[in-house]
Request: fold
Amino acid sequence: MFKKKKKRNPEADKENLLISFPSRSRYAEAYRTLRTNLFFTSMEKEIGSVVITSSVEKEGKTTTATNLAYTIAQSNRKVLLLDCDLRRPHMTSMLVEGKEKGLTHLLNTDLGVRLNQGSLESYSVADLIQLTRLQQRTCCLDIENPETQVAIYFKKGRMKDIHWKNRPESKKLANTLIQENQLTEKEARLALGHQKKSVQRLGAILYSMGIVSKQELSKALSIHTIEAIRAVSAMREGSFTVSSAPKGNGMPATGEELDFEKRYYEFASNAGNLPYIDGVVEQAIKGTEAENLFILPAGSIPPNPSELINSKRMDFLVRYLKKRFDFLVIDTPPVMPASDAVLMAPRTDGTILVMRSGNTERKIVQNVLDQYKSAKLPILGAVLNDVNMKKEGYYQYYEKYYTSYYGN
Reply:
C-alpha cells in the first residue's frame, strides 16, 4: 500500500522564519552570512535578483528564500518575494492569509484583458500598447480626441506602423518633401492621384514610381514617425477602439522595415506611464510583518504552470518588478519534477540551490547541475540545510568561536 503523503503545516513552518528569532541568534547570523556571500559572488555587477530552488522537494528552499529576503530587507533594501511555485505555493500559504488574487490572476486576467474600446481615463496610451504587445494581437488601435487622431497597427503584438490621421497639412509627407526640394508639386499631384486608386501609402507609391530616392524617403518617413509618436504619446484624454488590421497596412514604404517599436520607446514622452498596469500590480502585491519586505502571492494554481512561467507576460512582469524593487527573491518548484526554475533563471542574476544534508543522492544533484550547465545558466551558490554539526565534529569549534565573539 502507498503511504498517504503528509500535508505540510504552514503554521509549523512559520516557526523557522527569521522574524521569530533574535537578531543575535546563530540562525540569524547564518542568513546574514548567506546575504554577504551572495553580494560578493559578483564583483562586476550588483546582484539584484535570484531564483531559489532545490533538486527535489522538502529541502528547505521556501524557508531559505523567505529568510534570505528578510535578511536583505534588513539592509534597507526594498525586497519582493515572488512565489513562482505555481504547483505547490507553500510560501503563499505561510505569509498570506486567505485566498488572495496573485501572480496567476495578474498574468492571465489583468495583463490578458482584451480591450475593444474604452477611455484614456482608465488606460494610458502606453498601457494600451503594452497590453497589445503582451497579448501578441494583430490589430489596429485607433486613438482619438478632438485635437488628435492616430492609428497604430500591430502584427502579432509588434508595432508595424503608426498613422497620424489628422496630421497638419504643412507636415504631410508630400508637403515636407516639396519644402525639402525632393519633390515638385506636379510630381506630388501625380503620386496623390495614384494613391486615391490604391490601398498603398504615399511613401510606397513615391518609391515605386522612382520619384524620391530611398535615402531621402527613409529620412522623411523617420521624421514623420517620430512626429506621430510624439502626437499620440501626448494624448491624456480621449477614446480608443481596437479592430482587425486592414490588409496591406503596415507595409514598409521603401522596401525596408522601420523599427517603430524602437522609435516609440525612444521618443514617446509617456512610454513609462502605465497607470492601469501600475494599479493591477499594486493590488496583487502584499505587505508582510517585516519592514521593506513584500510578497507577490502565487494565486490560484493554473493548469499550465510551465507555459505561464515561460510566457512573454512573465518576462515583462519580472523586468517591471526589477524597476520597482531593489531586490527580487523568486521561489520556484524543485528542478527534477518541473522545468520552471530553469525557465525562470535566465531572467535573474542567478540561482541558489538548496540541499538538505543526507536527503538527496549525489547523482540527482549532479543531474541538476548538468541541466544548468547545458543551458549556460549561472548557479551563484548552494545552501546546505540541516547539517548535524555535532555528528560532523564542527559543533565544538563553532560554539567556541561564536560565544567568544558575541560574549554570550
Remarks:
- The two ends are 51 Å apart (CA to CA).
- Residues 168 and 312 are 38 Å apart (CA to CA).
- Residues 1-5, 400-408 have pLDDT under 50 and may be disordered.
